[in-house]
C-alpha cells in the first residue's frame, strides 16, 4: 500500500490517496492537517522514549555486570594470592625438609659406619646376644632409608601437600630421635665389644702385676747369685708376696709346675703362638688345660725357686726363644 498527500484548497485538511493494485480504484482519505502531524510525532516520541528506557535499562545491566566482574576479579586475585602464599609456604617447607634430610643422611652415615665396625667385630668374634640385638636393630633402620623429599606434590591439592609435608616432618623428627638413641647406644656397645675383644685377645699385652716397678730388665746382666755375666730371659717386677698375678693375654694354660730354678710357675700359650711365663709364684690359682682370659688372675707373687726376694719374673717366648716383653706390654 502506498500513500501520498495532495494539496487541496482547504488548508486545514489534507487528502490522502491510497493506491492499491492497478485494477482497483484509488481511495481518498480526508484527514485534518494537525492529525497528520500529530500521529507520527506521537509515534516518534514513544519510540524514542522506548529507546531511552532501553538504554537506561541496559546501562544498569552493564553496570551490574561490571560490578559483578570486578568483584569476581577481586575474588580471583584473592585466590591467586592465597595460592602464591601456599606455594611459598610449601617451598619453604620443602627446603627445610631437604636440609633436614641432608643432616639425617650425615648422621645415618655415621651410625652406619659405627654399625659396620661393630658388624665386623661381631663377624670376627661372636654370637653374643647383645651384638645380635644391635645388628638387627640396625637392619630395621634400612626400611627408613628410602625416606626422602619427593617431587610428586603438584598433582594433589595444596591441603594434602601441607599435610604430607607435616607428616614427613614428623617422620623426620621420629627418625631423628631414633638416631639420637642409636648414637648414644652404639658407641657404648662398641666400647663393650672392644673390651670383650680385648679380653678375648690372644696377644699378651696386659701388665701382669699391680706394681709397675722393674727390678731387672731383659738382656745381659750380672747374675745376682754368681756375680757372673748372664742372660736374663725376662723382666723382674717388684711385688709383695700374695699380690695378684694376671694373665697377660687370653690363652690356654699349658704348664703349671714347680722346680728349684723357676719355683712355682705357669706357662700360658696364646692363640698367636706366643707363650707367657710367670715365675717364682707363691701360689698358682689355675690348672693345666684351663682357658684364661686377658687380665684373669692366675696366681700370686712370691719368691719360690732361684729368687732373692719377692718379685714376678715375666717372660715372653716367641718360637722357643725369649724376647723382650716390654714392647708387648701396654
Ligand atoms: Zn727374672
Search tags:
330 residues; alpha+beta; Glucose Permease (Domain IIA); 8-stranded antiparallel β-sheet; rod-shaped; binds zinc ion
What does this structure look like?
- It is rod-shaped, with a radius of gyration of 56 Å.
- The protein has helices at residues 33-125, 129-141, 158-200, and strands spanning 2-6, 13-19, 27-32, 214-216, 219-222, 229-232, 235-238, 244-246, 251-259, 263-269, 275-281, 283-284, 291-292, 297-300, 311-318, 321-323.
- It is an alpha+beta fold.
- The protein has three helices and 16 strands.
- The strands form four sheets. Strands 4, 7, 9, 10, 11, 13, 15 and 16 form an eight-stranded antiparallel sheet that branches. It has a three-stranded antiparallel sheet with strand order 1-2-3.
- The protein folds into three domains: 2-79, no CATH class; 81-200, no CATH class; 214-328, Glucose Permease (Domain IIA) (Distorted Sandwich).
- The termini are far apart.
- The chain binds zinc ion (ZN).
- Residues 216, 232, 234, 236, 313 line the site of zinc ion.
Amino acid at each position: 500500500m502506498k500513500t501520498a498527500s495532495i494539496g487541496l484548497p482547504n488548508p486545514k485538511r489534507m487528502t490522502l490517496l491510497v493506491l492499491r493494485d492497478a485494477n482497483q480504484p484509488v481511495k481518498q482519505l480526508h484527514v485534518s492537517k494537525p492529525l497528520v502531524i500529530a500521529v507520527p510525532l506521537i509515534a516518534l516520541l514513544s519510540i524514542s522514549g522506548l529507546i531511552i528506557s532501553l538504554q537506561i535499562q541496559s546501562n544498569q545491566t552493564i553496570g551490574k555486570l561490571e560490578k559483578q566482574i570486578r568483584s569476581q576479579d577481586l575474588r580471583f586475585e584473592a585466590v591467586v594470592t592465597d595460592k602464591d602464599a601456599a606455594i611459598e609456604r610449601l617451598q619453604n617447607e620443602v627446603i627445610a625438609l631437604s636440609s633436614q634430610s641432608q643432616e639425617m643422611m650425615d648422621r645415618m652415615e655415621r651410625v652406619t659406619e659405627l654399625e659396620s665396625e661393630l658388624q665386623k667385630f661381631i663377624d670376627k668374634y661372636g654370637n653374643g646376644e647383645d651384638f645380635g640385638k644391635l645388628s638387627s636393630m640396625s637392619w630395621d633402620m634400612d626400611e627408613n632409608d628410602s625416606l626422602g623429599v619427593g617431587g610428586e606434590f603438584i598433582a594433589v591439592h595444596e591441603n594434602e601437600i601441607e599435610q604430607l609435608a607435616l607428616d614427613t616432618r614428623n617422620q623426620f623428627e621420629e627418625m631423628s630421635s631414633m638416631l639420637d638413641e642409636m648414637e648414644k647406644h652404639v658407641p657404648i656397645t662398641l666400647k663393650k665389644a672392644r673390651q670383650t675383644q680385648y679380653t678375648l685377645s690372644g696377644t699378651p699385652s696386659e701388665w701382669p702385676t699391680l706394681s709397675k716397678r722393674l727390678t731387672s730388665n731383659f738382656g745381659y746382666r750380672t747374675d745376682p747369685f754368681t756375680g757372673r755375666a748372664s742372660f736374663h730371659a725376662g723382666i723382674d717386677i717388684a711385688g709383695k708376696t700374695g699380690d695378684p698375678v694376671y694373665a697377660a693375654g687370653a690363652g690356654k694354660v699349658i704348664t703349671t709346675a714347680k722346680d728349684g730354678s723357676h719355683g712355682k710357675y705357669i706357662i700360658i700359650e696364646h692363640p698367636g703362638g706366643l707363650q707367657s711365663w710367670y715365675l717364682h709364684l707363691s701360689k698358682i690359682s689355675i690348672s693345666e688345660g684351663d682357658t684364661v682370659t686377658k687380665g684373669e688372675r692366675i696366681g700370686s707373687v712370691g719368691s719360690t725357686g732361684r729368687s732373692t726376694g719377692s718379685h714376678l719374673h715375666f717372660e715372653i717366648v716367641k718360637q722357643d726363644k725369649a724376647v723382650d716383653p716390654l714392647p708387648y706390654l701396654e
